[in-house]
Design goal:
two-stranded antiparallel ribbon; 9% strand; single chain; 2 strands; Arc Repressor Mutant, subunit A; mainly alpha; 111 residues
Length: 111
């Protein structure tokens, strides 16, 4: 690398400063992730098939309006409304107002 290079050099680390997270930190983080995932799976198991289908559709498609969910899942509008309400009860779904049309709500999976 020449002295006129535009590459920035990496910061120097002191010998006392850790460069990497410890294995313990990663294992604690991994355990928390597993607990969150298993908790969501348990909440999802108790739901009707229509709610599971809406959940899976949102997982693949991302944010959708109710009308888009009806189209994607091929369920009736009433069934999708029921599925949405059940997912909201279990705190698996978030909603926000659409900027394109304030009358519509956008649904997405809770983080």
């Amino acid at each position: 690398m020449s002295s006129g290079s535009t590459w920035r050099s990496l910061p120097e680390f002191s010998k006392n400063e850790p460069r990497y997270r410890s294995e313990t930190t990663y294992s604690i983080y991994f355990e928390e992730v597993l607990q969150t995932v298993s908790s969501a799976k348990q909440r999802l198991e108790d739901l009707p098939p229509s709610a599971k289908l809406v959940h899976k559709t949102l997982e693949f498609e991302g944010e959708c309006t109710q009308k888009e969910l009806v189209t994607e899942t091929r369920l009736s509008s009433r069934t999708v409304r029921y599925a949405i309400s059940r997912l909201e009860e279990k705190e698996l779904l978030e909603q926000r107002v659409s900027f394109r049309d304030a009358r519509q709500k956008l649904y997405s999976l809770a983080e």
